[in-house]
Amino acid sequence: MKDKNKVLLILGLMAFLANGDNYAAAPLIINIARDLNLTISTAAISVTAYMLSFGVFTLLFGPLSDRFGKVKIINIAAFGTAIFSILGATAFNLPSLITFRMMNGIFAAGIFPVTMALVGESFDDDNRHKALGKVMGLMFLGGATATAIGGTLAYMGSWRFVYLIYGIGELILASVMFKVLERDKAVVEKLNIIGTYKKVLTNYSFMRLTLMIFFVGFTVFGSFTYSGQLVQEIIGFNLLIVGLILSLFGIGTVLGGKIAPNLRQKLKNNFLVFAGLLGFFALNSLGYLTNIYVLGISFIAFGIAFIFLQSTLIGTAQEMLPQMKGTAMSIASFNMFVGGAVGTSVNGMIMESYGVTQIFKNASFIMLFVGLIISILVAKFKKRAVPRVQKTTVKENSN
């Protein structure tokens, strides 16, 4: 990279739009259901299609980027997600909407993990974390503003405007990326997807941790999809206000990302227990209380709890596979989004039978359980890792 700051900005803006394209669906489900004459849970199948395809294909794009180059894969993925986001605005029934959103998810899966891998290998140890933080910051900001943007555009015109505007923005950036990003070389001569993942699947400590990532996706994405319906039942049908309230969740993720390092250092092993408890109380408040101010605070706390858990899980997963960080990211993304897809589907059935508030009541207990289990798993891994580091240090000193 010649102008690394410029490249970081472009990649960060693409992550901003692609992540926003995902989160923007939450306030749109109500509008989509009405426009296409569907129930809320049926319209939510389009969200399931996006997340499921994203999760599955993220396993493929990592090895493909090693074989054909990361920049080539990012460019193809950027154009693909832009085109199918635009096509999503033309959906005329449920099958067409599912198809366009599914294809959008497939190509979006080639943006996040591969972008993080490209940035990671383009910077040295002293600047890598800072560079990754800039890209992830824009990605989370995209999620933070997506519901407000989506709600505003839908309020001013139609839900179709949201997918159209995001798609056009992605198409413009994809064109810029095609000209600006320097092509990198392939690092492997042939694909060996089975061999790559076979080693990971037999690492049982890593697989137990990523199972928890599945439950985080199930709880967070699976419930947030229906948060627009929850807010609508409390304050009435106004997509602009709904979108603004839901954006507080995204603001919580940005805020949580800033305070997580210092709080983790202070609380140590209790950090994840605190995250689980915070998520428990936030989701319970959403399930039981109807005060609009409490609602806003609960969405912020929900976002903070999510990012506390996610950042720790991702960081620990990469520590468990220090030589296979790209693969670790792919499996983490797979579990997060497949968990979200399954959660969206299951919660749709729960909402039809018991009402939307039951989704958040159930999710509160899962969040608490996940926080407790993760704290145990991470503590065990850290305990095993310390002796290995000490042993290595002793060997180096003796030499």
Total strands:
0
Helix content: over 70%
CATH class: Mainly Alpha
Mean pLDDT over the residues = 87
List the domain count as a whole number.
Answer: 1
- Cα separation of the termini: 38 Å
- What assembly state would you assign to the polypeptide chains in this entry? single chain
Rounded Rg: 21 Å
Please name the CATH architecture. Up-down Bundle
Tell me about the largest β-sheet.
none
Helix/strand order: HHHHHHHHHHHHHHHHH
Strand content: under 5%
CATH topology: Growth Hormone, Chain: A
The CATH homologous superfamily is named MFS general substrate transporter like domains
Put simply, the count of helices is 17
Shape: globular
- Which structural class do the helices and strands define? mainly alpha
pLDDT < 50 runs, ≥5 residues: none
